[in-house]
Amino acid sequence: MDKRHLNKKEYDLIEKEVGYYAENGIINNAQREEIISLYSIGRDLNFVRILVTVGSILIGLGFLSFVASNWKRLDEFMKFAIMFGAFMASMGAAYKLEENHFRIGRSIIYISALVYGAGIFLVGQTFNLGGHFTSAFLMWGIGILPMAVLFSDKLLFIFSHILFIVYLNGLYGYYTFPYLMVLILPLLYYLDRYLGNSKIGTFFTNVLLINSIITMGYKFNFEGVYTGILVFAAGAAMYLFCKRDYNPGVFRVSGLITMGLSGIFLTYKEVWQELSYVGRPEELAIAIGIMLILAFLWLTSKGNITALVFVCLIILRYYFDALYDFMPKSLFFTGGGLILIGFGYYFERMRRRDAENGQNE
């Protein structure tokens, strides 16, 4: 059975609790050792790893700067050979050093990722491959996914998401459709679970999903209101249908943030004026705002602090929209400050109540 990797705080807690069970005769010492053996302390992001990561990035940038400065003097074969050779050499070195010199090996794999990405741009320029520049970010993101899986590196996994986000947001104004994202997104969710259900990995995959929906809506010339409704529905699905064994807290927070932001977007009458069959867009927008406030207040009553944040944002949105042009500015900002202080006080009360309930349990 594979060991579960925990951070030191989590590992110490389990060791303490299992020791407590053994002391009280619930389990024997052999069972205690067997349970503890199922866990190991993972490699946390510490100061040394930060140093070697930054160092690897600087080395990679230095190498790329040297190659770029001499790029025009090299023939095509030499250009390709240098980039391919540098990539294969760094990958081989990272693989060899991974077991006994983890941090150094991991820093070299980051150099490999940079060399791979630079190679895509430089080789494409050399052979005049054409295409839109965002396609290079797509290829870069796809290419480092096997590296993230091979070395079980969550940082590379998250970096691939950033590259995909750059790819998507670079497509506006061009005729390229991001059809590949239909295949990439399920793969990312699968790999996230394979890499240990990383919470930050799950969050970035959710962000990429929402970004893909928005980009697809733009590409298919959807009205903004339809895209907003689709995004809101995606957020609701994240919140309502999250699995218990797959970071449910991350899905709920992602869903709430998505519903909150898209819901605020749908409270503007200008959004509904795009639809010719909506006779009273202003009244509809206000009705949606009221329903949102009621829904988030209900979630707040269940102890959801994130929902309270969006109640505050929606109220401030209407406060600014309705009163900014009519109230004296001193009175307007004073009122806004009082609203924020009031919500901050209630927010703190909820946080303390949750902390006290956790201690009592």
UniProtKB/TrEMBL annotation:
- InterPro entries this protein is in? DUF2157
Coiled coil ranges: none
User: Domain of life, per the record?
Assistant: Bacteria
Give a yes or no for keyword Membrane in this entry. yes
Which keywords describe this protein according to UniProt? Membrane, Transmembrane, Transmembrane helix
Q: Pfam families recorded for this chain?
A: DUF2157 (PF09925)
Q: Where is the DUF2157 domain?
A: 21-156
- The membrane-spanning stretches of this chain are 47-68, 80-97, 109-130, 137-166, 172-191, 224-242, 249-268, 284-300, 307-324, 330-347
Stated name of the protein:
Membrane protein-like protein
Please spell out the taxonomic lineage of the organism that makes this protein: Bacteria, Bacillati, Bacillota, Clostridia, Peptostreptococcales
